Amino acid sequence: MTMTAPNVSCRLPAELNSFVGRRHEIAEVKRLLADARLVTLVGAGGVGKTRLALRVGFDLRRNFRDGVWLAELAALESPELLVQTVTESLEIQDRSVRPSLDVLIDHLRDRQLLLILDNCEHLLDECARVTETLMRAVPGLQILATSRQSLGVVGEQTMAVPTLPIPDVDGSRPSAESLRQVDAIRLFAERAQAVLPGFEVTEDNQETVARICRRLDGIPLAIELAAVRLRAISAEQLLDRLDDRFRLLTAGARTAMPRQQTLRALIDWSYALCTERERLLWARLSVFSGGLDLEAAEQVCSGDGIPADEVVDLVVGLVGKSVLAREEHQSTVRYRLLETIRQYGRERLRAAGEEPALKARHRDWCDDLVSRAQQAWFGPDQVSWFMRLRAEHGNLRTALDHCLTAPGEVERGLDIATALRFYWIAAGSLREGRGWLDRLLAAGDEPTAARAGALCLNARLAVLQSDFAPAAAMLDESRRLATRLGDARVLANVAYVSGLTGLIRCDYPLAVDMFGEAVEGHRAADAPMGVANAMMYLATAHSLLGHSDVADVQYKECLAICEARKEHWFRSYTLWVYGIEMWRRGDTAAAVETEREAIRLKRPFDDRLGIAQCIEALAWMAADDAAERAAVLFGASQESWRSFGAPLLGYLTDYHDTAEALARERLGGRAYESGFRRGTELAPAEAIAYAMGEACEVAEPAGRAASPLTRREMEIAQLVAQGMTNKAIAASLVIAQRTAEGHVEHILNKLGFNSRAQIAAWVGEQGELLPRRSP
């Protein structure tokens, strides 16, 4: 059986409305990307840099083997989180203690992708440093950045994004049909039709519409903000009010105004057209980062002039005035302020002297949110709470940053960061969780229960990264403080982290002692989640010591606790290790089904670490009787481990080494490597489907030789076989023509050929060995 080509990744948001014009600019950006690895789109706020970058990325998605990815930086306030934000945008769950930039480089090193860095201007120095480092280390990476100024990196190509073409209304009178082809007019007309169905540019209104677009300097955001006014007034009234406002701003001068001033004037006008309460809500909403839902708006922004029961109507009003963007988010609706509009609202909030109070209310809302999530985590709503926290990640960062910068807030920050303990782990954000805890713990040293819990959690995250020395120091301090305070729950957690340390370091007797102490401590504290968590690994330690009967009883008890609560996270991890115990006892069929059930439970969390662990276990289980399948699974597992920036957990290494050696022996070295390579080429979704038995077999027949070409060279060889010239190949793959020529030369040398016809014939002979290039 053969494998289909990996799906092209295109992690770009869907366009909420039509994309108008920019044909010349799109072509120019593509041309620049063909010759340069870093292209920065520069221009004032509202000129359309982001939409242009996203459109180019979407158009080029098939030209980048590993896809097009977006890192949105507008809501990021801490430069130190830049690399982590990019890492998360690329869906890398960094679980190591290595420098995060090194992990990012290692993940990207042999990949070929386009990364869009959106809104770099407020993090310019850090963006420049990171971008330059990545470009030097990752030859297959291209970056398309948007910023209000260039990054200043060697090799950077910049393109100033112009405003949309506007009609010349002072010359001969064009027809309505010709005006409708002008980009600024088209945009105005399409956005006007959204609020006034049936609106068209006609012979009667064409001059008015043209003057509106000219008055707005062709700025897309300004045109969109103005067009929505046609819901209430005519085009002629709109033009009159634009003239009045802009004449006021420029002391009567009718000369062209700076674009930023024009946009500011439009936002001023949008603000003026809002009711007093809508303006107040607009300003208060600016404390949110990354969006919000109606519940958040009601809790944070009501009171002091805004009755809670009026928030929904005010939100509807702001959506109607294009101040708030409405976005579907799974089963709920979320709202987002465009960054330019958010900055304007923050200025108004600051000018009113309300910023500190609103930041505190936002902090309180985040505190309440994570407290409710913590209480509900061990239950049937676990997945929905996890998704909710993921959606609010930007807001959680903002709240924690407030706790670090506002006087007297450290204790609240420790509470929030500690309440997020399972979120940091489930989201793969170990490094970020440790970062917040490190900074908060360093900001104060009061001997409180919050500090004891934070120290224990920080040690736990460090142990999961195999960073044992600092973990031991934090654990000792946490134990001393909890003993002094008589905090039995923290002491039980300290015992759990000590057991985890023993397990990962293969000290199984220590693990049994410490996990046993943790189980009893959590039982005494009536904490079933703690009992299940500790018992899962207590059973694992017994299993590794050969105590199969004890392990079996404890695994079943742990599953019973989880099933009684309809809980999925701990149940999935228990099934993972229980499946390994079943396999060790010889019940491979039951073990395989147990691992697959664990994967089913993990998929809603996008728990890539847990899924990788299950795929790894399935490879062990296949090594004896289905060695080709094992080789593919080992390859898929390796790709997953690479994405975490960390090696396989220590206590699993022996199983891995034994099973890999067995599969190699069964297949022979060449066939094993062939299957392994196929596994590395599986997309994540394909790897899961294959592990679940939902996809056709992908291993090559034993004995087929691996290709001497790299993946990129094989891709180019296919294009040569299609009769494409070097120039056409360069255009198709968005590379320089000289780069394409170099690749073709390398292919000829590697294969010992002297003509392109020989390459074409060779490609035909390889058949399915070459991965198909997406159309």
From TrEMBL:
Family annotation (SMART domains): HTH_LUXR
Which GO-annotated molecular functions does the record name? Answer: ADP binding; DNA binding
Q: Which GO terms describe its biological process?
A: regulation of DNA-templated transcription
**InterPro entries, per this entry?**
AAA_22, HTH_77, P-loop_NTPase, Sig_transdc_resp-reg_C-effctor, TPR-like_helical_dom_sf, Tscrpt_reg_LuxR_C, WH-like_DNA-bd_sf
Origin: domain of life = Bacteria
Task: Return the Pfam families for the record.
Answer: AAA_22, GerE, HTH_77
Question: In its UniProt entry, what is this protein called?
Answer: LuxR family transcriptional regulator
